[in-house]
Write a structure and sequence with these properties.
Helix content: 25-40%
Radius of gyration: 21 Å
Strand order of the largest sheet: 2-1-3-10-4
Structural class: alpha/beta
CATH class of the largest domain: Alpha Beta
CATH topology of the largest domain: D-Maltodextrin-Binding Protein, domain 2
Order of helices and strands: EHEHEHEEEHEHEHEHEHHHHHH
Number of domains: 2
Number of strands: 10
Distance between the termini: 52 Å
CATH superfamily of the largest domain: Periplasmic binding protein-like II
Strand content: 15-25%
Shape: globular
Length: about 325
């Protein structure tokens, strides 16, 4: 049995007060934009990357809110920053948010950015073409690279193993950031690697590999993949700014879905994505709901699956976890 390698701005909006009596009044000064400290990752979040790369795509960006965006290489550090209050909004794995909520971390899922679905690309686990690993059972005793513990990738790995009577204790799990996964596999630091887009497309272009299984192999239903979450107190205090931010994200989602090549080229030009155009512009992509509305039913199914698999011990209140009230109509 192998071991597992483990897991401001205080906004002051001042309105200038007009003089009374016979004097002319001074026009009221608009409140300063609310700073939204956002933590984001490196996969399946293009709509928000567009706002970061080109703020003018958002009609409210810089007016009612401004983004203070920080990229996190691993989901674990992003989750820790969110729990510690170092960021206000977190983009990350829906599985991780549900798991954290079950453990008592206060959060609200306010938007859906992408989903794992049989209708579109699904995150895959690859091995080098020369690898003796030909099937899931062959992973026993091997090192598997995933983006972090208590993430969607961890669940998919565990679910795939359990289909063959194995558990995640039968492999050695190595947390590896997605941008470093290809090199880790090339160097032999991991035998199997988890690859979302655009890293899967890049891997298939640059290396001789085989797909071993994908997310839908062990979890045969649609799942929320990347969601935006915030803490209830912050959301209520800054409701107008959060609504305007999500309105802009909805607009950039529309732009991304209608003009994917143009939007992706913009991200390449802004160096938000460091993948060659011949790979990135034509890659298969995840399913994205243009309304951004989180699928509470899918989240409930995900939780049931996680509990049944032993991945999650406690139950989160999914109805209380999802708050779609900040989404535009």
């Amino acid at each position: 049995m192998k071991s597992i390698i483990h897991r401001r701005h205080v906004l002051c909006g001042f309105a200038a007060t007009g003089l009374v009596g016979g004097f002319a009044t001074t026009p009221a000064r608009a409140a300063d934009p609310v700073t939204l400290r956002l933590g984001y990752g490196g996969a399946a979040e293009e709509q928000v990357w567009l706002l970061i790369a080109k703020p003018e795509l958002g009609k409210h960006n810089g007016k009612t809110y401004k983004l203070d965006a920080t990229r996190f290489q691993g989901s674990d550090k992003r989750a820790q920053a969110f729990e510690a209050g170092a960021i206000d909004l977190s983009q990350g794995s829906a599985t991780g948010v549900v798991f954290a909520a079950a453990e008592g971390v206060s959060a609200k899922i306010i938007a859906s950015l992408s989903r794992e679905s049989s209708r579109a690309f699904s995150t895959a686990f690859y091995v080098p073409d020369s690898s003796p690993i030909k099937s899931v059972p062959d992973m026993k005793g091997k090192i598997v690279g995933i983006n972090g513990f208590s993430t969607a990738g961890h669940l998919w790995l565990r679910s795939a193993l359990e289909k063959h009577g194995l558990t995640d204790k039968d492999v050695t799990i190595a947390p590896v950031p997605f941008p470093a996964m290809q090199e880790a596999m090339r160097a032999g630091k991991v035998d199997v690697g988890e690859f979302p887009q655009p890293f899967a497309a890049l891997l298939e272009k640059q290396a001789k590999v085989r797909k071993l299984f994908d997310a839908k192999y062990g979890v045969p239903f649609d799942e929320e993949l990347i969601v935006i979450a915030g803490k209830d107190e912050f959301l209520k205090k800054n409701a107008a700014a959060v609504r305007d931010f999500l309105s802009d994200v909805k607009d950039t989602t529309k732009y991304y879905l209608e003009k994917p090549k143009e939007a992706r080229q913009l991200l390449i030009d802004a160096k938000m994505v460091r993948v060659s155009p011949d790979v990135y512009l034509t890659m298969d992509d995840y399913y994205r709901d243009p309304t951004l509305r989180p699928d509470a039913e899918a989240l409930a199914k995900m939780q049931e699956f996680q509990i049944k698999a032993g991945f999650q011990k406690k139950t989160a209140d999914i109805k209380a976890l999802v708050d779609a009230s900040y989404l535009p109509n």
